[in-house]
Amino acid sequence: MKAVIFTTVLMLSCSAATFAAAASEGSALREARALLTAEGMESERPPYHPGHGVNFNPSDHVFIKSALAIDFAYRNASVTLPLFRGLSPEGQDVFYIVTDASDFEVAHRMGVNYAPKLAEAVGSPGVQDVTLEDGIMKFAGKVDFSPEYKVVPGDPPGYFPPKVANPGAVADDKWSSIVVLPSGLVLNAQIVANASGHHLRVKSIDTEARTVTLSILDGVQGGNQYFYHLVTDASVPIAAVLEKGVVAPRLAKLPEFGKSLPGEKSALLGFSPVLNGRTDKGSGEDQGFSTALANGGVDPINVFPIGPDNDNPSRENNYSPLWDAHVSMWTQAAIDGGKVHRIHSMDEQKSLIREGLLTSASISPPGPGNPYVGGLRPTDAIINCPVIAQPDLPPQ
């Protein structure tokens, strides 16, 4: 009899848990629909709906389906995205974009990247809890776009560290672009304009039509030269300066540096900027912080392990826009041997590490290495870089 009672209680508990999960998923979809409805009403443009967005060429491999336009001009690429209106803590209008969601159905409905790892951020001090009323999100934190951006390269040959590195936007201690809605849904939502100005990556913005065009960066992944991503914010000033994003210190409180493998309780994913790559712009071999500083802020061409897998609903889907920087550095042996070149994939990076040609950058603090990126140590810097597209284009 006791066994029967125990089994019945267990079944009821499981049913309750299943119902609660389903209710939460339903609430998340309702929140997504409310956001889209409000955006559609205010823009007087039909909100994105699966299958009814812009018909990009299949060879463009556009991940964010809600994008309104993409320009793949070399070294001058851009994406146009829908603009959402929200409210500051004081109730003033702010304008933001959404690029990633922790829920598969929400990501599909909104036309953004599915990033299940973002759910690992819930409950951490690195997120920003927001409220939602009639599809209008109210933020707890603020971003100041008024500071003057300035960078002065260091001395050659490395140009790093810069002599001056002043970010062009600074968030307060309550701001995080990783926002948690009342249902528990996590969105990657970055303010790009408010009363203080606009994001450094804004090329044009129309707050009436609710559109914004932002510059996107090149990178490498899986041997492909073109891995276009958008830098929104970073947890430390130097990364925000080099990548032209917002300094958002709260991001550093997200879990957990150096944890990138599927199943690890981390919202982050390791990737690798290069500290001291070649600086000869136009050679096809330039890469890294050094080339960005030496050539007026061109893309550093960072090395990424994977891209979005938006058709994969599994919780083992390992994509995250929160890139945990593991900065690499060419060794003296590589420099003396003339082996320095542009790295094109994470597999190539791991091979170079095994050969003793690449190692953890001197700026990375002591600690264990991360096997996901070949054993490099984390630099304790997060760069929020949602991936936009990975087009099939001829090399430049």
Could you give the topology of this structure?
Elements: H1 2-43, E1 69-71, E2 78-82, E3 84-87, E4 93-101, H2 104-110, E5 113-114, E6 128-129, E7 131-133, E8 136-138, E9 143-144, E10 150-152, E11 164-166, E12 170-171, E13 178-180, E14 186-194, E15 197-198, E16 202-206, E17 211-215, E18 220-221, E19 228-229, E20 233-234, H3 237-243, E21 246-247, E22 269-271, H4 289-294, E23 303-304, E24 322-325, E25 328-330, H5 332-336, H6 346-354, E26 358-360, E27 382-384, E28 387-389
Helix pairs in contact: 1-2
Description:
- With 396 residues, the protein is α+β, with helices and mostly antiparallel strands.
- Helices cover 19% and strands 24% of the residues.
- The protein contains 6 helices and 28 strands.
- Strands 3, 4, 5, 6, 7, 8, 13, 14 and 15 form a 9-stranded mixed beta sheet that branches. Strands 21-20-27-24-22 form a 5-stranded mixed beta sheet, with helices on one face. A 4-stranded antiparallel beta sheet has the order 1-2-17-16, with no helix packed on it.
- The model is unreliable at 1-23 (pLDDT under 50).
Question: What keywords describe this structure?
Answer:
396 residues, alpha+beta, nine-stranded mixed beta sheet, 6 helices, 28 strands, 24% strand, disordered N terminus
Rg is: 21 Å
Residue windows where pLDDT falls under 50 for at least 5 positions: 1-23
Shape: globular
Mean pLDDT level: 93
Number of domains: 1
Biggest pleated sheet? 9 strands, mixed
Q: Helicity, in percent? A: 10-25%
| Beta strand count | 28
What fraction strand? 15-25%
Distance between the termini: 75 Å
Count of runs of 4 or more consecutive helical residues: 6
Structural class: alpha+beta
